[in-house]
Amino acid sequence: MKTIDFSYFIERYNTGEMDTLEKNWFVKELEGNSKLQQEVLLRKRVDDCLVKHDLTDLRKKLAGLEKSRKEKVAEGDGKKSTIIRFAAAVAVLTLLGILYYLISGRPGDPEKLYQANFVPYVYSGTPRAAVQDNDLSFKAALDVYSNGDYRAATATLGKYLAKNPGKTEAKFLLGVSEMENSNFNNAITIFTGLSENGSNLYLDHSQWYLALCYVKTGNYQEASEKLQAIINSGSYYKSKAKKVLRKIKE
């Protein structure tokens, strides 16, 4: 059996270039594959370090060029060569500025931040709701959710919750489905309710996805408050929340 070389897919996954079908497939490959998960994380860290290194180098070059420009202007000798050198410096500054923008993106850009941090929740294990209620309707909803058909999942989970309104598990998956369907206001309502219920098993996940919903919709004030709450709580998402909060404040 031919072994899959995941290098290409890891790069596309980390840069947010995958379409929905490819992303769903890759997320399933990640499930239960600790070696692949570690490789994705390592590549992400390496990429982040490279970007930081490039940005530091660019800043130094920009500062040097600006210093040189001021010195040339201060000379004021009116020579044509000075004008030419100054024009060349401006051209280089413009080019480096474009490169800087391409590498870093706009600080705190909602779409960029969201795509870099959102991964749909991967459900694993036996659905507790189905076991407790001996009800196959939740299992059906889980099947379409796991297959990446989030519109069908929303409809099926909605029907299930109409009869079982207190099922936290189903509410949480409905919230994630609504994020995938770009219905962020609905997702915010769902995750807000789950976040206020401190005893539910999906509290950490709900708080993280709620913060991402606010990031996506550009509501940085709410996003910052939710991210800080995650950091203060010592949640599983603490380190990720710190990273996103730093980006927002840049």
Task: Provide a compact summary of the structure.
This protein is 76% helix and 0% strand. It has 250 residues and is mostly helical.
Can you walk me through this structure?
There is one protein chain. The two termini are 48 Å apart. Helices cover 76% and strands 0% of the residues. Helix 5 runs antiparallel to helix 11, helix 8 packs antiparallel against helix 9 and helix 11 runs antiparallel to helix 12. It folds into two domains: 105 residues; 133 residues, Serine Threonine Protein Phosphatase 5, Tetratricopeptide repeat (Alpha Horseshoe). It contains 13 helices and no strands. It has 250 residues and is an all-alpha fold. It is globular, with a radius of gyration of 24 Å. About 3% of the residues have low confidence.
Strand content: under 5%
Q: What does the oligomeric state look like here?
A: single chain
Number of strands: 0
**Share of helical residues:** over 70%
Tell me about the biggest sheet?
none
Q: Give the full name of the CATH homologous superfamily of the largest domain.
A: Tetratricopeptide repeat domain
* Mean pLDDT metric: 79
Please compute the radius of gyration using only Cα atoms: 24 Å
Query: What is the domain total for the residues?
Result: 2
> Helix-strand pattern, N to C?
HHHHHHHHHHHHH
> First CA to last CA: what distance?
48 Å
CATH topology type of the largest domain: Serine Threonine Protein Phosphatase 5, Tetratricopeptide repeat
The top level CATH class name of the largest domain? Mainly Alpha
Structural class of the secondary elements? mainly alpha
CATH architecture of the largest domain: Alpha Horseshoe
Number of helices: 13
Tell me, briefly, the overall form: globular
**Poorly predicted tracts of residues:** 100-107
